[in-house]
Amino acid sequence: MSLIAKNSLLLTVAKFFSIAIYAVFGMVLARQVDTTENGVYSLMATFLFFGGMISSFGIPLVITREVARAKELTAKYYADGILAVIVGSFIATVVLGCYLFFEQYMREQFVEWHFVLFAITMTVVFADAIGSVCDALFQAHERMAKPAVVEILTGLLRAGLAVIAIYTLPQHLRVLGVLVGFCIGSLLRACIMRSLMEKNLLNGEVVSAKLRDAFSLIKSSGFIAVFRMLRMLRNRLDILLIGVLFVSMVEGVAADADVARAIYAQAVRVAIIFHTITIAFNTALFPRMAQQTGDSKDVSAVRETYSRAVRWQGFWAIPLAAVVFLYADNISNFFGADYLNGSPENGVLGTTGQMLQVLLIAVLFDCIGGPIGFVMLGYKDTERKAPMIGGVIATSSLALNLLLIPVYGILGAAMASAITAFVEFMIKVVVVAKHLGSPWPIFVRLLPYVGITAVSGGAIFVAGLEDYAIWGALLAGTIYILLCAVLKQLDPVVVKVGGERLSLFKSN
Q1: Closest CA to 308 of 507, 138, 485
Q2: How far is CA 341 from CA 255, 327, 392, in A?
Q3: Stretch 486-495: mean pLDDT
Q4: Which of helix, strand or coil describes residue 494?
Q5: 174-197 and 145-168 are packed helices; what angle lies between their axes, rounded to 10 degrees?
Q6: Minimal CA–CA distance to 343: which of 54, 34, 23, 32?
Q7: Rounded Cα distance, 202 and 196, in Å
Q8: Could you write out the DSSP letters of every residue in 289-349?
Q9: More confident residue, 248 or 139
């Protein structure tokens, strides 16, 4: 197995396993707390997302790229990176704390308890930021096995503690217990990763961190950071706007913001499974892409890696999205009646299933466009365009949410995400085409997966399994793999007869 394939598999297994645990946990939480409490949890989860982006400030990507090109700089980037994310965590705490105060001011409701939850949430952000620096260095060295194992084990611990909290604590303390469980798991992961880092990569080398160097690292990540931070507004701006302003404007109904946020956020949690697989794969890909774009002018090598990456994303994302689309209501039903039927008494007129079906459009563009973004960040000239691109994406998201939420409610938020994802995809395609030429021949190679998915999905209806999600998914998945094999569409997953190893990319 090639190194990229091995690392991709390790990260994908770790991330998917962790997300699978949280998916089960999310179903448990939704059924064990009311929608208002779930809405509060969704807000804190959003803070986790934003806090992680602000605290890291694009630093892990820069560390991975630079150390992949010069591994003797490992100790320096380790010291500077740790100090830099500490500074970033402080900034994140201030910014998000101000937002929480603003939201409660706008809703004319100050809940001191929410600030306690916020403090625990930001501790998780701090611990995860420390771990992200260590992860970046292991990725630069293309040694992902140990970080993957740590992620799986601490993910199990987090979920286990969260489930214990749900079933042992009074309802009003369950969100607190869940966040404390997350905090314990994150702090333990940070400690373990630092220990592994020092033992496996530093070899006794110690470099003192300096604030000046830490800020220099933050500055060097500026283009990437601004892009990622603006782009993250597209991913979570909808949840924030639902809570602050617009639910009450939907058809003149005084809707409950926390209930609306809960129903919408459950759809987002399912969609995150796609993003997790994509991120794991692209993270494993990035060190190799950094080498190819930094050390060589051979466009063919970059284009080959890019082409295989896009095909791999299409291979798994297209059929999975189709199955989730078909069984969206079944998935919503797992969470409870409010998520399946909406909550009209609170003025929330959409369902989790409806949100999920629309969000899947955004998911597909994000999955297929993910490798394009990493190509863009590999070239200096396109990297410098990243803040402008991020600004366009964030502005589009804000404008569409402002336009659509007052008219369509939480469904409008999902529609805004889908349209913005398409805009982002097209922009990245145009920018990267300068270096790699037209990408459309690559995307045309995804059409067989669309056709095979259609045939596989049709088999569900022929068999009468449209109401049986598990059996329908198994049938469609089996037919999909068989047809891909018969039609020789299993590249980039090359299957070698006799149980030989799988390969996503050609070994160098």
Answers
A1: 507
A2: 15, 15, 35
A3: 65
A4: strand
A5: 160
A6: 34
A7: 9
A8: HHHHHHH---HHHHHHHHHHHHHHHHHHHHHHHHHHHHTHHHHHHHH-HHHHH-BGGGTB-
A9: 139
How many C-alpha atoms does 487 have within 13 Å on its Cβ side?
Answer: 14
Task: Give the tokens for residue 123.
Answer: 């501790």
Token pair of 491 as six digits = 């590249």
Q: What is the pLDDT of residue 187?
A: 94
CB 410 within 8 A of CB 348: yes
Is pLDDT larger for residue 466 or for residue 334? 466
CB-based burial of residue 483 (10 Å sphere; 0-12 exposed, 13-18 middle, 19+ buried)?
Answer: middle
**CA geometry: angle at 408 spanning 406 and 414, to 5°?**
105
Task: Summarize pLDDT for 123-153 with one digit per residue, the tens.
Answer: 999 999 998 888 888 877 777 778 888 888 8
Ramachandran sector of residue 110 (left: φ over 0; alpha: ψ -120 to 50; beta: rest): beta
Give the integer Cα–Cα distance in Å for 182 and 299: 44
CA proximity to 428, closest of 472, 473, 464, 377: 377
- Alpha-carbon span 432 to 205, nearest angstrom: 39
Q: Report the C-alpha gap between 139 and 192 in whole angstroms.
A: 16
The DSSP secondary structure of 29-76, one letter per residue, reads: HHHHS-HHHHHHHHHHHHHHHHHHHHHHTTHHHHHHHHHHH-GGGHHH
- Whether the CB-CB separation of 502 and 5 falls below 8 Å is answered with yes
* Cβ neighbours of 160 (radius 10 Å): 14
**Mean pLDDT on 484-507:** 54
pLDDT of 358: 93
pTM exceeding 0.85: no
Distance from C-alpha of 305 to C-alpha of 492, rounded to nearest angstrom: 10
Residues with Cβ within 8 Å of 381's Cβ and at least 6 positions away in sequence, in order, are none
Unique residue bearing structure tokens 């949100």: 355
Does residue 139 contact residue 15 with C-beta atoms inside 8 Å? no
Task: Name beta bridge partners: 503.
Answer: 494
Q: Cis peptide leading into 492, omega within 30 of 0?
A: yes
Q: Which two tokens stand for residue 204?
A: 């006794």
Largest CA distance in the chain: 66
